Amino acid sequence: MTTQLPSLCELTRDELALWCQNHGEQPYRADQIRKWLFGKRVNDFNAMTDISAGLRQQLAHEFVIFSSEIATHQKSSDGTEKLLLRLRDGETTECVLMREDDRRTICISTQVGCGMGCVFCASGLLGLSRNLTTGEIVEEILRLDRLLPPLERITNVVVMGMGEPLANLPHLLKALATLDEKGGLGMSPRRITISTVGLPEKIRELSQVGKPYNLAISLHAPNDTLRSELVPVNRNIGIDAILAAADDFFQETGRRVTYEYVVLAERNDSAEQARELAQLLRGRNAHVNLIPMNSVSELPYHDPAAERLRTFVEILESSGVTTTVRKRKGADIDAACGQLRLRAASANVEPITTVSASSQNPA
Ligand code: SAH
C-alpha cells in the first residue's frame, strides 16, 4: 500500500537529518535531498542523482513525495493560476499563484474549510473539516512552485487562503520554516504575510517565534457592534483586545501591522465608518488594505460603488492612515479562496483530471 506512506513534505530539515542518521547516513544528506525536492523540483526519488541508489530505494520504501493530487488546475486571463488539491482522505484544499511584474505571490490555505463564520466568506459556508498537516501546507507551496518556469521563483507568500492560520499555528510554522531552512526555497520570512481573524493570544505567540513574519488582521468594521455581525467570533474577543495584541506584536517585532477591511456595499463603506476607522487606527503604526468584496453567488454581499470607495480611501489618507486598495486577481476562475472548493462541493463533482480554463487565455 504505497499510497499510505507519509509524504516527504511532512519532515523538517532536522527530522530528515535524523532519518538519514537512523539509516546510517550523514545528516548532510538531508540537505541534498531537500535541494532536489525544493530547488530542483523533482517528483521522483530516482531523479536525485547525487544520492546513492540504496538511499533512494530506502526513501521510496518509506515515503512518497506528494500525498495530494491535483484535482483541478485553472488559469485566469491575468496569469493567476489556482489549484484544487485532493488530499488523501478525500478532502480538498486550494491555493493560488499570482503574477504581477516581477512578483510571484502565492496564497495558501491552512485548514479544510473554516470555523470562523465570517458572513461574506465562501470558506466558512461549509464549516471547518480539519486542520491541514505540515506536509499538506508544504505540498501547496511546492505544487504552485512547480507551475513556474525553471528560472522563476516564488517571491512572496500570503497565508490568506482557506482557514484561520492562527488556529493551526504549529503546523503552519513548521511548514513555513522549511522555506527558509537550508535546502528550502531560500525565502525570507519578511516576504511572508499571515492573515488572521484576530486571535489575541495567538498573535502574541506569533510575535514570540523570532521570525519577522508580517501580520495582517482582518478587521472589517470600525466598531464591535458591526464587527460582531460580520465576524461572529468577535463577540468573544472585541476590537480593543485585538488592537492591544497587534500593538504588542509591533513592539516585539518592529513589523508594521496591516489591517484588512473587506468593503461591503452599504454595510461598512460609509464616510462615517471611514472616520470611525481612522479614529481607531490613527497614531498606530498601521496600514489599511481595503478589499472590495469578491462576490460569491451564495452570499448577499457586493462590492462598493467606486465613488464610495474613493471617499473611504480619502478620509483614511487625510487622517494620516496609509491605505491601499487590493487589486482583484483571477476573478474569472473564482480565485477568492473557498470558492472553488465550494463549487466542487455544491455540484458534487469529482474532478480527477487537470482541467484548465486557459484555452482562451494566454497565461
Ligand atoms: N482567516 C484568515 C485568513 C483567510 S481569509 C483571516 O480572516 O484573515 C483572507 C482574507 O480574505 C481575509 O481578510 C478575509 O476576510 C478576506 N475575504 C474572505 N472572503 C472574501 C470575499 N468574498 N471578498 C473579499 N475578501 C474576502
Task: Give structural attributes.
363 residues; DNA polymerase, domain 1; 10-stranded mixed sheet; two-stranded antiparallel sheet; 12 strands; 32% helix; binds S-adenosyl-L-homocysteine
Can you give a write-up of this model?
- The structure is a single chain.
- The protein has eleven helices and twelve strands.
- With 363 residues, it is an alpha/beta fold.
- The protein folds into two domains: 55 residues, DNA polymerase, domain 1; 219 residues, Aldolase class I (TIM Barrel, Alpha-Beta Barrel).
- The strands form two sheets. It has a ten-stranded mixed beta sheet. A two-stranded antiparallel sheet has the order 5-6.
- Strand 10, helix 9 and strand 11 form a beta-alpha-beta unit.
- The radius of gyration is 21 Å and the shape is globular.
- 42% of the residues are buried.
- The structure holds S-adenosyl-L-homocysteine.
- S-adenosyl-L-homocysteine binds next to strand 8 and strand 10.
